[in-house]
Every structure is written in C-alpha cells, then in structure tokens.
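for the writeup, i need someone to sanity check this before i put it in the appendix. the sequnce is what the collaborator sent (i think, or maybe the updated version? ugh). structure was predicted straight from it, no edits. if anything looks off just tell me and ill rerun, i have time this weekend
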Amino acid sequence: MLGYVIGRLAQAVAVMLAVALVAFLLFNYVGDPINNMVGQEATTTDRQELRERLGLDDPALVQFARFIGNAMEGDFGLSYRLKRPVSVLIQERLPATLELVFLSAALAIAIGLPLGIYTALRRDSWLSRFVLTSSLVGVSLPTFVIGIGLIYLFSVQFDLLPSFGRGEVVSLGWWSTGFLTKSGWAAIIMPAITLSLYQLTLVLRLVRTEMLEVLRTDYIKFARARGLTDRIVHFRHALKNTLMPVVTIIGLQIGSLIAFSIVTETVFQWPGMGLLFIQAVGFADIPVMAAYLVMVGFMFVVLNLAVDLVYFVIDPRLRLDRSKAAGKAT
C-alpha cells in the first residue's frame, strides 16, 4: 500500500511540475508583462527598473523556481485588469465554483446511478426506453443551448428562477455560501442542472453498460444457480463490481466539471472561477490565466490521486497483483 501511494504521489508531482511549466511559459512569454503593468508615459528607464525589480532578467531556471515557490504560497502576482492580488480574486470566486460543481456532481450521481441500474435491470420496459431516449439530450445539445433554454422557460416565461447571479450569500470566515439562503438556492438550480446534464447522462449509460456486462458473467450465473434472490444477486454481487470502473470515471468527471464550468458560468453570469477566466482571456490578464491553469491542474491531480487510492481499496485484484509482483521480486 505504501509503495502504491508513493508511486501515485510521484506521478502527481510530475504532472503538477508540467502544469506549472506551461503556466510559467504563459506568464512570462505571452506578451510583455511590463507593458501590461505600466502606462504609455513610462520611460525606458522606468521599464528596465521594473523588469529588474521583478526579476525578469534572471535566467529562465531561476524564474521558474521562483514561480513554483510563489505558486506554492498562492502568490500569482497582481491582476492586470483589476489591479488586485490574484490569490484574493481566487479566494473570492472559488466558493461559487466549488458549490456549483458539488451540487452538479451530486445531481448527476443521485439521478444517474439509480436510473442506470433501473435501465439495466428493466431494459425492455417502456420507461427504460424513454429514459435512454431522453438521455440523448444530455449528450447532443451544447451546454449553452441548454442554459439559454432553461433561462427562457423558467425566468422569462414563468418568472420562477433568477436568470443570473448567485443570489444572497452568507460569509463563513473566508468562505461565502449561498446554501444558507433562499435566493442562493433559487439562483443555483438552473446552473447546476445545466452543468450536470451531460455528466448525468454519462453516469447513467456507464452504469447501465457495466451492469449489463457484469450480469452476463459466470459468477452471476453461479449465484443464480445457488438459488440466491434477484435482490441479493443484483445489489450485493452485480452492483458492487459495477461500481469499480464507475468510481474512476466519476472522479475524472468531477474534475471536468471544475474545468469546463466556464460555459455555464458565462451563460448564467455565475461569479465563479470560470467567469473570471473568461474575463481574463478577453483582457489578456496573464496572471489570472496562469493561476486558473495551476488551480484546475491541481484539482485534477488531487481527484485522480483520490480515485486511484479508492480504487486500490475497493478492488482486491490490485492488491493481489502487487503482492504477487513483490513476491516475484524477492
């Protein structure tokens, strides 16, 4: 177990170094940072003094090491557009994105998992066929079309839900949450549905496919031959083995929700990191773009590491294979 964890940690560090290198190149070699930080009236001497003060004339390896050190402390400099520390901007926007992602993932799992099981066990029923046909909407329609459609229906036509913003929030230390206010819940419903629809469809179809595959295996046939009830066969034996690959995909998809919440946040003007990134792209705000890249990369790495560890715990075959490998090595 310890060797497995160390190996995964080493891979995570390597990935983060690669992401940091990309962010560093973006930070230093996409345009001239000095031009974005000074006005037109600045002289050549002023520009050179600022360049030396920021260490931009140092060797590339020295600058990269300094960038990693600052990133580990959460220091990405000042936003060119807002003239505020990027770390403060992320701290303000991160709760909105994480709450949206959390609720979207919860909806995708809570709805997709039971529907996937039902459509696998009752695959010939009309309800199962209706669910599978309807789920095509989640993979065929673009996210922005779904969001605009929900806004038109529930905001314009029926005036039930707000079309933009986060609603009223409550501050709990540095964390701001909308889960404790009525307007906060009203504001997050449509963005969460929009963001979760594709993931819900993916979970539904993945669970259904894996469940059907497991139900055809020999040990399930043997369990039925022993006289076990359908309930025990389906939920104690089949479902347990179905969830193993599903856990991996769900972990990766949560990372995708964080990375690709940009479109949803833009459509609903949700004040999260995705909207901040889009605004930074429009203004060429390199520090914000670099910080967003590092943050999303870090979240992906952490989620992948967590999924690997969970998979190692729930799948005894991995532990058995590593034990055999260790025995052969000795």
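The beta strands are 170-172, 175-177. Residues 117 and 235 are 9 Å apart (CA to CA).
thx in advance!!
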